[in-house]
Design a protein that fits this description.
Blueprint lengths: L1 H16 L4 H15 L6 H13 L3 H10 L1 H19 L13 H39 L2 H4 L4
Helix pairs in contact: 2-3, 2-4, 2-6, 3-4, 5-6
Length: 150
């Protein structure tokens, strides 16, 4: 049983490493977490997969960080909408949504999504930089990851 557990640990460490340096792995985890906070449910998983394939990032690591951010994603939708509305200073949503024409409701919803996306973008870019620089020294201390050259 202990050999089986050790084999799984080695396999997971191999997946996480995949020949990546600590800096590149830190960037992968930071991107996955930031994209995981995207205020549009369902899009982050596909976006992480496309980015990982396009830039040769570690697919399991970026998806793990993406899924780890899911609770935060749901909590941050409201604040991102508020921040986006503050940045753009748009008109408030109609109060009585049941009696609002469908076209106006769809337009308002699209506007809110765009504002939330703008707010997320303004927060995510510096967050990725900060997380990458903070995680790199931590990952360099992990022996299995530190073996890869920077």
């Amino acid at each position: 049983m202990n050999q089986w557990v050790q084999n799984r640990k080695d396999q997971i460490a191999g997946w996480l490493r995949q020949g990546m340096s600590p800096r590149r792995l830190a960037l992968t985890l930071s991107l996955g977490f930031a994209i995981g906070c995207l205020p549009m449910v369902g899009i982050p998983t596909a976006l992480c997969a496309v980015l990982a394939l396009a830039f040769g990032l570690n697919q399991p690591a970026i998806q793990a960080a993406n899924y780890a951010a899911l609770p935060l994603q749901l909590l941050l939708i409201g604040p991102f909408i508020k921040l986006g509305r503050w940045i753009i200073s748009g008109n408030p949503m109609p109060g009585d949504l049941l009696h609002t024409p469908v076209t106006k409701l769809l337009t308002a919803s699209g506007s809110l999504a765009g504002q939330a996306l703008l707010a997320w973008l303004l927060v995510a870019i510096p967050a990725v930089l900060v997380f990458t620089f903070a995680l790199t020294p931590v990952l360099r201390r992990v022996p299995a990851i530190a073996q890869a050259a920077d």
